[in-house]
């Protein structure tokens, strides 16, 4: 007997996530204070610029910078929220509940329920005929696709995971990497505009009264100290914008390099770990037509990147313009049913899915 539960899919999600607005907002179950602090800075700093710098810029320099700044701010705050609240690409659980197992690495095949059972890796062929071993995740009950890793903070396997971002309180993966990158670009441009026109505000105040300003009006002939006393918050916004610009620009440059190499932060960390421990490449002798079989941690300096293209532009397109499903694999909004049938007496596997929720 299959009965309707009336519950939406997000209520049955087993990862360490929180959902709001009937599942529309998805975030990590980690401490939200870093994200809230980032959101406050993201709103407060542009608000100060709009209040204390934008009016002078509009009337004495040009309205265009204010309009451009408003547009970039809207892009930045929207991209930030979409990145933080969208499903990053969580892989469904229990896709492979009964993987083939052996007793140890070289033992005989045994049942999955045996405490000595070691799930065997699966071989997946990717670009250029390269074979990769993918691991079975004992938490999610699923073989991880290539470039997928399990996030210990969110307790999910995430498709094409780049990293877990504390300041956005979510993982950055296949479904939100583009908006994450857009957030970095828009934030950098906003900070640059803020810095430039804070300087111009003080500079115009120090021009002689005979100097005509671009949008009308004249300089006020103040000294630098007098100009600072007239608009002290321009100086404050200037230094705060620099303090925000430096780390974001550093992160942006780091991701530019990763994008050009078609590499993720997780893969880069593996490279650094390999260098630190001076690991040597070990190839499987049972190679297929594509050559050697690389282990799950093969995306390091010991192996060529099987996902990278010869062209840098193709790497950029693959990283930023990759196709994305219309909705996540989780079916957060779909009503679920419960399979109320009793387990078969012949099925003793503890991984049986009878009694588990299934999508409608």
From TrEMBL:
<feature type="transmembrane region" description="Helical">
    <location>
        <begin position="64"/>
        <end position="85"/>
    </location>
</feature>
<feature type="domain" description="Palmitoyltransferase DHHC">
    <location>
        <begin position="135"/>
        <end position="270"/>
    </location>
</feature>
<dbReference type="Pfam" id="PF01529">
    <property type="entry name" value="DHHC"/>
</dbReference>
<feature type="transmembrane region" description="Helical">
    <location>
        <begin position="35"/>
        <end position="58"/>
    </location>
</feature>
<dbReference type="InterPro" id="IPR001594">
    <property type="entry name" value="Palmitoyltrfase_DHHC"/>
</dbReference>
<keyword id="KW-0449">Lipoprotein</keyword>
<dbReference type="GO" id="GO:0006612">
    <property type="term" value="P:protein targeting to membrane"/>
</dbReference>
<feature type="transmembrane region" description="Helical">
    <location>
        <begin position="233"/>
        <end position="254"/>
    </location>
</feature>
<dbReference type="GO" id="GO:0016020">
    <property type="term" value="C:membrane"/>
</dbReference>
<feature type="transmembrane region" description="Helical">
    <location>
        <begin position="177"/>
        <end position="203"/>
    </location>
</feature>
<keyword id="KW-0472">Membrane</keyword>
<dbReference type="GO" id="GO:0019706">
    <property type="term" value="F:protein-cysteine S-palmitoyltransferase activity"/>
</dbReference>
<keyword id="KW-0812">Transmembrane</keyword>
<feature type="region of interest" description="Disordered">
    <location>
        <begin position="337"/>
        <end position="360"/>
    </location>
</feature>
<dbReference type="GO" id="GO:0005783">
    <property type="term" value="C:endoplasmic reticulum"/>
</dbReference>
<dbReference type="GO" id="GO:0005794">
    <property type="term" value="C:Golgi apparatus"/>
</dbReference>
<keyword id="KW-0808">Transferase</keyword>
<dbReference type="InterPro" id="IPR039859">
    <property type="entry name" value="PFA4/ZDH16/20/ERF2-like"/>
</dbReference>
<protein>
    <recommendedName>
        <fullName>Palmitoyltransferase</fullName>
        <ecNumber>2.3.1.225</ecNumber>
    </recommendedName>
</protein>
<keyword id="KW-0012">Acyltransferase</keyword>
<comment type="similarity">
    <text>Belongs to the DHHC palmitoyltransferase family.</text>
</comment>
<keyword id="KW-0564">Palmitate</keyword>
<keyword id="KW-1133">Transmembrane helix</keyword>
């Amino acid at each position: 007997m299959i009965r309707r539960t009336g519950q939406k899919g997000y209520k049955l999600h087993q990862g360490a996530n929180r959902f709001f607005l009937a599942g529309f907002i998805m975030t990590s179950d980690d401490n939200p204070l870093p994200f809230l602090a980032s959101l406050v800075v993201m709103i407060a700093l542009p608000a100060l610029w709009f209040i204390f710098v934008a009016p002078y810029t509009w009337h004495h320099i040009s309205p265009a910078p204010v309009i451009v700044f408003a547009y970039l701010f809207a892009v930045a705050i929207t991209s930030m929220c979409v990145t933080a609240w969208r499903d990053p690409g969580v892989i469904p659980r229990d896709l492979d509940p009964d993987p083939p197992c052996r007793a140890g690495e070289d033992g005989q095949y045994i049942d999955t329920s045996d405490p000595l059972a070691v799930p065997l890796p699966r071989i997946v062929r990717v670009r250029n005929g390269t074979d990769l071993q993918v691991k079975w995740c004992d938490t999610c009950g699923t073989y991880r696709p290539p470039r997928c890793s399990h996030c210990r903070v969110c307790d999910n396997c995430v498709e094409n995971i780049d990293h877990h971002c504390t300041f956005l309180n979510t993982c950055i993966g296949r479904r939100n990497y583009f908006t994450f990158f857009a957030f970095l670009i828009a934030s950098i441009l906003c900070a640059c505009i803020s810095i430039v026109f804070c300087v111009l505000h003080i500079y115009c105040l120090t021009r002689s009264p005979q100097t005509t300003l671009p949008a009308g009006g004249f300089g006020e002939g103040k000294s630098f100290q007098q100009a600072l006393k007239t608009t002290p918050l321009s100086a404050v916004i200037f230094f705060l914008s620099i303090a925000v610009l430096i780390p974001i620009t550093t992160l942006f440059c780091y991701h530019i390099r990763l994008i050009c190499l078609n590499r993720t932060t997780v893969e880069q960390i593996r490279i650094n770990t390999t260098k630190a421990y001076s690991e040597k490449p070990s190839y499987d002798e049972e190679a297929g037509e594509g050559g050697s079989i690389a282990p799950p941690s093969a995306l390091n300096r010991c192996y060529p990147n099987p996902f990278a293209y010869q062209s840098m532009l193709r790497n950029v397109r693959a990283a930023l313009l990759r196709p994305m499903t219309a909705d996540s694999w989780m079916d957060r909004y779909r009503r679920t049913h419960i399979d109320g049938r009793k387990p078969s007496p012949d099925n003793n596997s503890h991984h049986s899915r009878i009694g588990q929720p299934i999508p409608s």
